[in-house]
Amino acid sequence: MKHLYTWSGILIVVFFSVVGDILIARAMKKVGDVHELWDRCGLWAVVGRVLSRPSFFFGVMAMAVAFFSLLFALSWGDVSLVAPAAASLTFIGNAFAAKIFLHEKVDRRRWIAALLVAAGVALLAG
Amino acid sequence: MTFRKYLVLAGVTVFAAAGDSMLSHGMKQVGSVSLYHLQGVILAVLNPWIAVGILLLLAFFASYMNALSWADLTYVLPATSIGYVLLALVARFALHEQISLLRWLGIALISGGVGLVAGGEALTSHGHHKSPPVAKDAKDEAAESEVASAASSGAPR
Q: Which of A20, A72, A102, B78 has its CA 20 to 30 A from that of B93?
């Protein structure tokens, strides 16, 4: 039963982290290259553009939910399982979600990179 | 990729690693914070390590968003995961902590992933979205110029 709680906690953390990352990435893609915008219109134009994107706010909210669910998950399960499992599954979840929702070209090179990093993070933090 | 963009990626990496380390150092000084004694959170924020850690994490978030404005999520995430490797190396050579064989293997895997993704393109999603309309525009323009040239060549008759 404890395992069930721990793993559902981990999956909730992964879900909200991925949602947060995707929404923020989407907002920033809509804003466009901030270096160009900054050079043309200044810093406040960049800030205004970012704050005018609803997906930015939903993304920040999802990240906050992910953070607090991580705190709860840590109180249900061991740090040595929860932290690396959540970090490593988030890498893989993000690769899937970026392909589907952001239409990024996740080619074989990027899949292998995501899997290597996910495995490495699991080993490093475990 | 310009030097400025590499600097932003370095910022994502360094701010995240430094911010996390400062927070964890500060939280060890403050002790555990319970949900039932939330005033402990305020006490924690007053700790200088935690305050600086929070500022560094804000800087991390700003550079992370900056990077996402010109690069794919599946590029930024693996590329900046070199921070895990940096933290492990700092732990080994500055703090003289022991690193097990499994952790060295983890470091090697992450470095491999970073190397793979860093050698490729940074941005694919824009091309994916924009190339069809651009091609269409070009075609439309070609069609328009044909019409225009036809009209201009037809005009004298």
A: B78
